[in-house]
Structure to design on (332 residues):
């Protein structure tokens, strides 16, 4: 099926639902995700909630995969298209569908989930295209392991253990863009580096200590528009999905080479002459400021520039050092 088509999602739900029922179930799910975290696992035990989850979170999460792929070097992207792909906590098959949609290759797709209802739902969407189980395949050293909004639902030790058991070549994750999630993923990142992985994205160097701490958290922000039916659900449950904070990472086994790129951490200000960004760099232990002159930019470029996504990686050339932590640069 074309996973982006809302009508096809509706046709393949575990139980048929009217819009009013979808909205009521989504309100319960969203409450459990935020204020009632002790009830976080409940939605996977009801056919109605699994179906409602599929109507809203499946299409809105799926699009984050393209964002992450677009940040990676082309050779690595191609490798992900070739390797077997194992989606941990696949839910309704969200990132299997995203992978299938993005690559359209015939590599093997595997979905793991502890909920039998989620697996039933994923099977309805993916048919024979993927294999599903409650447990891990024993050796996955020639594969990509993926966590999509699942690492923050399972204990950190469990996720690290899954990596140890499968020993994948590449690890990808897309998790909520929250402070809580960042704390967890920072621990995961440390552990992956200890295991010999290097960070390809978002960090400018594979094994650099993260300069973000305290009240800050490093995340990306994706701006997008969904199908009208999904936008309507978003309004009815008051959950914005046009601007989506997320934390996406990519790790590669034995990755030592420098990434060299800078990471757009935060927009600071726009003046008459320039844009100021806070960025994370390969060498500096602190976040630094980039002043990007408007000189030479067309109106269109300036407009595109001011709507850049936080968290994107980019290449640059330093024009002038303005201070220990401030540089005037041009984009490459
Ligand atoms: C928030 S959903 C994410 C679903 C999908 N990846 C997405 O992003 O839309 C989390 C999923 O992780 C599954 N899960 C939680 N703990 C798990 C574990 N220890 N092993 C396997 N799956 C788990 C849940 O059953 C649920 O389907």
């Amino acid at each position: 099926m074309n996973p982006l088509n809302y009508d096809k999602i509706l046709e393949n739900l575990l139980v048929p639902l009217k819009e009013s029922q979808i909205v009521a179930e989504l309100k319960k799910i969203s409450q459990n995700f935020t204020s009632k975290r002790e009830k976080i696992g409940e939605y996977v035990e009801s056919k109605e909630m699994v179906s409602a989850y599929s109507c809203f979170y499946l299409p809105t999460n799926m699009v984050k995969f393209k964002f992450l792929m677009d940040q990676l070097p082309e050779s690595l992207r191609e490798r992900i298209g070739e390797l077997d792909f194992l989606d941990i906590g696949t839910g309704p098959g969200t990132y299997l569908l995203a992978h299938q949609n993005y690559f359209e290759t015939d590599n093997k797709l595997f979905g793991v989930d502890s909920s039998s209802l989620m697996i039933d739902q994923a099977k309805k969407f993916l048919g024979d295209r993927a294999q599903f189980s409650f447990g891990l395949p024993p050796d996955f050293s020639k594969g990509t392991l993926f966590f999509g909004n699942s690492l923050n639902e399972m204990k950190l030790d469990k996720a690290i253990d899954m990596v140890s058991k499968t020993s994948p070549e590449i690890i990808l994750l897309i998790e909520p863009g929250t402070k809580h999630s960042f704390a967890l993923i920072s621990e995961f990142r440390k552990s992956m580096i200890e295991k010999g992985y290097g960070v390809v994205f978002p960090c400018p160097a594979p094994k650099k200590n993260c300069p973000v701490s305290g009240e800050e958290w490093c995340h990306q922000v994706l701006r997008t528009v969904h199908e009208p039916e999904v936008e309507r659900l978003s309004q009815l449950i008051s959950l914005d999905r046009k601007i989506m904070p997320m934390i996406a990472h990519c790790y590669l086994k034995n990755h030592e080479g420098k990434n060299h790129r800078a990471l757009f951490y935060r927009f600071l200000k726009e003046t008459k002459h320039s844009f100021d960004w806070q960025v994370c760099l390969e060498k500096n232990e602190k976040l630094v400021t980039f002043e990007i002159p408007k000189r030479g930019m067309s109106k269109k470029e300036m407009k595109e520039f001011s709507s850049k996504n936080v968290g994107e990686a980019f290449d640059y050339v330093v024009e002038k050092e303005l201070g220990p932590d401030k540089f005037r640069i041009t984009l490459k």
Notes: Residues 234 and 240 are 6 Å apart (CA to CA).
